[in-house]
């Protein structure tokens, strides 16, 4: 389960795919399938959540990994490549890696 916490010491990825609204659902399907079938089983994977914008122009994946090395090892696995290539053929990809510096609760 995704837990956003300043003390978690995880690597966080917030990856934004900008799409034509006619392609949003396909990008959601691709990311959902590759995460469910392959990525979530990789060593060091902690959690992820998939989001779609209400205006249909963005798909965002929030993912947590134990370390950058674990993430990079998964990226070397050739099995997810076809999913990402298809997504990139219909979406602009804006990757980002982050660390949590603050978290707030009511």
Shape: globular
Q: Given the structure, what is the number of helices?
A: 3
Distance between the termini: 20 Å
Write the CATH fold name. Answer: Alpha-Beta Plaits
The helix-strand sequence is EHEEHHEE
Residues in helix, %: 25-40%
Which residues form runs of ≥5 with pLDDT under 50?
Answer: none
CATH class, named Alpha Beta
The second-level CATH architecture is 2-Layer Sandwich
Number of strands: 5
- Estimate what percentage of residues fall within beta strands: 25-35%
> How is the main sheet built?
5 strands, antiparallel
Quaternary: single chain
Mean pLDDT: 94
Q: What structural class do the secondary elements suggest?
A: alpha+beta
Number of domains: 1
Instruction: Please state the CA-atom Rg, rounded to the nearest Å.
Output: 14 Å
How does this structure look, described?
This protein has 106 residues and is an alpha+beta fold. It has one domain (11-98): Alpha-Beta Plaits. It contains 3 helices and 5 strands; from the N terminus they run E-H-E-E-H-H-E-E. Strands 1, 2, 3, 4 and 5 form a 5-stranded antiparallel sheet that branches. Strand 2 and strand 3 (58-65) form a beta hairpin. The model has no long low-confidence stretch (mean pLDDT 94).
What is the strand and helix layout of this fold?
Blueprint lengths: L10 E9 L4 H14 L7 E8 L5 E8 L2 H9 L4 H10 E4 L2 E2 L8
Antiparallel strand pairs: 1-3, 1-4, 1-5, 2-3
Helix pairs in contact: 1-3
Descriptive key words:
29% strand; alpha+beta; Alpha-Beta Plaits; 106 residues; globular; 5 strands
